[in-house]
Amino acid sequence: MQSLSCLICSAPDPLILDERSRVPIAQNLMYRSATAAQNCPTGALKIVRCMSCGFAWNAAFDLALLTYDEDYENNQSFSPAFERHLEQVATVIKDRVGHASDLNVVEIGCGQGYFLHRLQDLLGDRIGQLIGFDPAYRSDSVIPSGARVEQAYFNLESSHRVGANADVLVTRHTIEHIDDPMAFLRSIRAVAKEGCPIFVETPTIQWILDGAVAHDLYYEHCSIFDAECLRLALETAGFVVQDVQHVLDGQYLLATAYAGNPTPQHRATPVQNSGYPERRAEYVAHWADRIEKDGKDGERVALWGGASKGVTLALLLGEHAKAIDAAIDINPARSESFMAMSGIPVILPDKARQSGITKAYVMNPAYFAEIQDSCTDAEWPLKLVPVK
Prior knowledge:
Layout: E1 15-24, H1 34-38, E2 42-49, E3 56-58, H2 80-97, E4 103-108, H3 114-123, E5 127-133, E6 148-150, E7 168-172, H4 181-190, E8 197-203, H5 205-211, E9 223-224, H6 227-237, E10 239-247, E11 252-259, H7 276-296, E12 301-304, H8 308-316, E13 324-328, E14 337-338, E15 345-347, H9 349-354, E16 359-362, H10 368-377, E17 383-386
Parallel strand pairs: 4-5, 4-7, 5-6, 7-8, 12-13, 12-16, 13-15, 16-17
Antiparallel strand pairs: 1-2, 2-3, 3-9, 8-11, 10-11, 14-15
């Protein structure tokens, strides 16, 4: 079980934001039968927030329950909007790295190596070594020529696999899965040359609190930051922070820093009590009522998004989720799988159209315009509703 003292600043008595007794331990694991999905491994969720530094974490998290393996699939690169986001991240990296050569470039949490290709394209022959770390890496995944991936968690025990100290460090959508974020950041600092730039991308708790977006809280996201808290964590670990910006319509943070000797500064603005628990109940009730009404009105309803957000909303809806026929997902790897616990089938858009789906709730509003355009291009009069 996680501590009830803050993992960043050690302050006691955090505010409880959300509690659920049974949730999937991993939203992005693929299940090939409804029975397997309904019987998936589960754990408890207890999201608390430090009222001193702003850090939020799952105090019920148990690392022993969670295993990342080859059935874990979280590739979002099939989306043009997400591709534009990745281009924004790549531009930030290119602007900050400078013109050095023979660079030892390390990506921690590289998945199937998709962003390794971007780093290769970005830095080209200036790369001396390109290495990724990810326990869910599949050996048949295609990575850049000359690169290598360590199928392992990155920590002090595995950090020697980097070889020479790093010149460039990238970690995207990884720190939120780490139950001891300070140990993680310090292990990264241990392999960074002085002045080595680091780029950290992670979801922000602020997006969730501002919109009471209950379906963005997951078991495996056991460490969630706002901008000021992420700055403090990086400074405490030995990185000088240049900036922390909000990206992908405010859903993520992108921090740019470099290895140095900073003086950690506590947050400049007080942590606010957002009233999230009450607003969360209203949010869930609103979407439950809408989806139940659709079912009664004869709509064939789908969620557009068969991974984390869709998995969680389907569970929050409880009995109302019976009105959902399927989840639509453009990632072909997820096609013909089933969502954790609910067992709702995940299908490609073409199959959704063929099966008579008439209305879809778009789980990530950042993708709404491109989904709308794709339906228009296909002359598919699908009714679309952004969930926000």
